Amino acid sequence: MMTSLDPQRRHQLSEAPATPSSAPSLASSPAERLAWVRARYMKNPRDEMFEDAMREILESDASGELTAHPQRNGLVNETRGVLVLGAPRIGKTALIRRNLRHHTAITVTDGKEPGNALYFRVSASPTLKGVATDILRVTGYGQVHARLRSSQIWDMVVSRLATLGITILWLDEAHHMLELPKECCGG
User: Fold this and answer.
1) Which of 13, 60, 160, 184 has the fewest beta carbons under 10 Å from its own?
2) Distance CA 48, CA 36 (A)
3) Contact (Cβ atoms closer than 8 angstroms) between residue 135 and residue 166
4) C-alpha dist (Å) from residue 172 to 13, 92, 119, 185
5) 114-134 per-position pLDDT tens digit
6) How far, in Å, CA of 139 to CA of 168, rounded?
């Protein structure tokens, strides 16, 4: 059962309002109605925060729309990133995916098709070298020599992404890269 929220706390559907022909009927099965709801994105205050963060790191075109080109800062043309943090299963991935797809200049890819924003899911027990090697693999790069140092492989990733026109690297589950292996801590 859905309860009414006060107007300031009400979430809005990001999709067009449901029409009688697009919404499931009451005669639909509960599974069909649930699938219809899950296919919609419930807009919330985090969307605005994410959009603000993207405006701080990406350039805008003449009309004010975000592009996929990063802002360059400082004497060495550094770029910056955004961390989206939160408890498990609260919709961080959906937030990012929905907001990146909202911008026509940004095309998310998994590395198999053209795009300028690469989605990569970090494995549960990664190394920096392994993540870089896997990014090269999913973008179609050939074999990476095992004796290369992590920094050398990351330089190859930067070059590979530039060659493919990928300017946004989205590392989903990146927190795995920050966790200490159990064997180093006796845990």
Assistant:
1) 184
2) 24
3) no
4) 24, 9, 7, 25
5) 999 999 999 988 999 999 999
6) 14
Q: Diameter of the chain by CA atoms?
A: 63
φ/ψ bin of 6: left (φ > 0), alpha (ψ from -120 to 50), beta (otherwise)? beta
The count of C-alpha atoms lying within 13 angstroms of the C-alpha of 169, restricted to the half-sphere facing its C-beta, is 20
Contacts of 72-79 with CB under 8 Å at 24 or more apart are none
Q: Give the predicted TM-score (pTM) of the model.
A: 0.75
- Strand partners of residue 38: none
Q: Are 13 and 43 in contact (CB under 8 A)?
A: yes
Alpha carbon distance 97, 121 (integer Å): 13
Q: What token pair was written down for 91?
A: 């919709």
Confidence of residue 83 (pLDDT cuts 50, 70, 90): very high
| Residue 77, number of CB atoms within 10 A of its CB | 9
For the chain, what are the domain ranges? Answer: 107-187
